[in-house]
Amino acid sequence: MGVAAWVSCTMPGSPLQPLMPQAFQQAVGHGPSSQVWMACTSLAVAGLAMIPDLDHPTGGGTVGHSIPVAGAAASDVVRVLSGGKHRGFSHWLLFAAAMGWLAWLAAMYPARTPVGDVFWGLGLIAALALTSALNVFGVPGGRPAHVLAGLAAGAAVAWFNPAGPMLAAVMVGGACVVHMAGDTLTKEGNPWLGPFPWHLAIPLVGRAGSVRESVLTLACAVWAVWVGWESGAVWLAAGLALWALGTAGWCVKDAVKAAVR
Ligand SMILES: [Zn+2]
Question: How far is CA 209 from CA 50, 91, 185, 205, 215, in A?
Fold first, then answer.
C-alpha cells in the first residue's frame, strides 16, 4: 500500500497527483522526473511504512526482525512504552507527526566533521527503510544481504543527503499515515486520535493477514504498475510488475491455505 500511495501522489501519470496540495508538490520537487528517484523513494516508503508495527508482539514486525540488534532494540523500546499493547501509541497520528519531525531534524542538522557534513540520522532512516523493504518484498539473499544493502544505502544517504528536510518529513510521516490507513481497513481498526482510546475501523479486509488483505495488496500492486506505465516510467513499471506477480503468488497461496482450513 505504501508504494501504491507514493506513486499515486508523486507520479505525473497518476490522476491523484495534480490533486495533491502545493506544499506537498514543493516538498517532492522535481524528483519524479527520474525513474531511479522514483524507485529509491518507493522502496524507502515501503520500508518506512512498517515503522508503526514496531509494537508488534512477535518482536516488532518486519522492522524489528529485518535489522539485527538495532531493530530488536527499537522494538523493545516501543513495546515497553506501549505497555505491551499492539496498535498502541505507534499507531497514533501524533506518532506519525513526531516521526516526520524527527526526519526533518535529521535532514536539517548534520554532524559537522572535518571532511564535511554527515547526515547520520537520515542515513540511519534510509538503512532501516531499505533493509525492511528488501525483507518485505522477499528479495533473494536473505538477511545478511538485505542488511549490507541497507547499510550501503544508509552510508550513501548520510554522505550525499539526497533528500531535503521537507521531503524526508513527508516520506517518513506519510509512510506512517499510510500504514495507519491500512490498519483502519481491518476489523481491529486504528487508534488515530490517541491518546484517546477510540479505534476507527472500516473493516473492508476483515482480520489482519486475511485473504482479502492479500487481494487488496495485489490491487495496489496492479494500480502502481498502471501509474508507472502511464507516467512513461517503463523500467519502474517492469519492477512493479514483478512485485505484482509475487503478490499474486501469495494471494493464491493464502486462498489455498484458507480453503484447506
Ligand atoms: Zn499496524
Answer: 14, 18, 12, 9, 11
Q: Where are the beta strands (DSSP E) in the chain?
A: 111-113, 116-118
CA distance 212 to 224: 18
Question: What pLDDT, in 10s, does the model give residues 3-12?
Answer: 889 888 888 8
Domain ranges of the chain: 2-260
If you measure from the C-alpha of residue 229 to the centroid of ligand 1, how many angstroms do you get, rounded to a whole number? 30
Distance 110 CA to ligand 1 centre (A): 31
Strand-pairing partners, residue 117, are 112
In three state form, how does the secondary structure of 96-161 look? Answer: HHHHHHHHHHHHHCCEEECCEEECHHHHHHHHHHHHHHHHHCCCCCHHHHHHHHHHHHHHHHHHHC
Distance 88 CA to ligand 1 centre (A): 9
Give this prediction's pTM.
0.87
- Paired with 116 in beta bridges are 113
Give the pLDDT confidence of 178-212 residue by residue, as tens digits.
Answer: 999 999 998 889 999 978 888 898 888 887 777 88
Task: For ligand 1, an ion, list residues with CB under 5 A.
Answer: 52-53, 183
**Orientation angle between helical segments 35-48 and 2-10, nearest 10 degrees:** 140
Cβ-contact 64, 74 below 8 angstroms: yes
Cell of 20: 495533491
